[in-house]
Amino acid sequence: MRLEARATTSGAATILWPAGAILATIVFSSVLVMIAGASPLTVFWLVFKGAAGSQFALLETLTRATPLIFTGLAVAVAFRARLWNIGAEAQLYLGAVMTVVLGTGAVTLPSAGLIPLIMMAAMLTGALTLLGPAILKTRFGVDEVVTTLLLNFIVLLFVSMLLEGPLKDPTGLGWPQSQRVIADAQLPRLIKGKRLHYGFVLAVVSAIVVWVIMKKTVLGYEMRAVGHNAEAARFAGIPVNLVIVKTALLSGGLAALAGFSEVAGLKGNLTLDLSPGYGYTGIVVAMLAMLNPLGVIAAAIFVAGIFVGADAMSRSANVPSYIAQVMVATSLLTMVAAIMLMRYRVRWR
């Protein structure tokens, strides 16, 4: 067996292959559901109902999708330029740290000035977090997969130290958590009494802005060119290393917004379990969206719906909610295979 690059990819193929990936995920998950002793149709209906069957369920899905949009965008931007950012989790947490540092009273400003200030500071922190691996890649050829992945663990240990030390809430009864951000530093709720906040609006706007950057600007063209063929881009006069650094700054800043939105919009303070893996799940979201910034919105809502719906389903169908993680992981694998088959034709000797 060998792979032969396709000269062109038809419009139908760009729809049929991803659709086939989703169908394969459903079939595989159905087998596991039947092994668990339940009906696949019943389980999938309960998942859908739990994710979008009521206003409360839908709003919870959109709330869960908010950080996934940010991390999905961060990964999509980086992967487009072949900068393999596996460290969105680290950038998320450091964005949250900066939100807590500035949002607990260190800066006295009205809400209209304080929230943008914290947001920009969080983005800068996330951007600088990815700048190091980007420079190591461009100057010394160090594999960014290794540096960004290991940075996740370093940052988590650093955050743990902060929560047991300088950032620990003195009124928290000994729990490793920070103080709550002040009211002027909190993002308002979209609907009174519900958990959905303006971070979701910010996420959607960010996706639109990133799409414009990718499709309509010189930087977006350079990122795509570097991603397709770095040597050809360098031969054409594109400063490849500079483009990678700019991509890293944008990607890291987007991932940090996930931490900002979770603290300022939802949780109110920083804990070590702020993210249940949003940085890693962002890779799945970006791949399901095929690195399209607007597609990231739909992919994030889809993945969030699976997680929210699975929680509700497990209480009714007696099927472990871990099926959601299996579905998300399987969808990533099948989508990667679909992307490969769109670009290459399998030839048998």
Quickly list its features:
single chain; 349 residues; mainly alpha; two-stranded antiparallel sheet; 13 helices
Summary of the model, kept short:
The protein contains 13 helices and 2 strands. It has helices at 11-35, 40-52, 55-80, 88-103, 111-140, 144-163, 199-216, 218-228, 230-235, 240-267, 278-288, 293-317, 323-343; strands spanning 2-5, 344-347. Strands 1-2 form a two-stranded antiparallel sheet.
Layout: helices, strands, pairs:
Elements: E1 2-5, H1 11-35, H2 40-52, H3 55-80, H4 88-103, H5 111-140, H6 144-163, H7 199-216, H8 218-228, H9 230-235, H10 240-267, H11 278-288, H12 293-317, H13 323-343, E2 344-347
Antiparallel strand pairs: 1-2
Helix pairs in contact: 1-13, 2-3, 2-12, 3-7, 3-10, 3-11, 3-12, 4-5, 4-6, 4-10, 4-11, 5-10, 7-8, 7-10, 7-12, 8-10, 11-12, 11-13, 12-13
What does this structure look like?
This protein is an all-alpha fold. It has a domain at 63-295. Helix content is 72%, strand content 2%. The chain is built from 13 helices and 2 strands, in the order βαααααααααααααβ. A two-stranded antiparallel sheet has the order 1-2. The longest helix is centred in the middle third of the chain and has 30 residues, at 111-140. It is globular.
* Helix percentage: over 70%
Biggest sheet features: 2 strands, antiparallel
**Rough outline:** globular
Structural class: mainly alpha
Strand fraction: under 5%
CA(first)-CA(last) distance: 6 Å
Provide the low-confidence segments as ranges.
none
Average pLDDT reading = 92
Radius of gyration: 21 Å
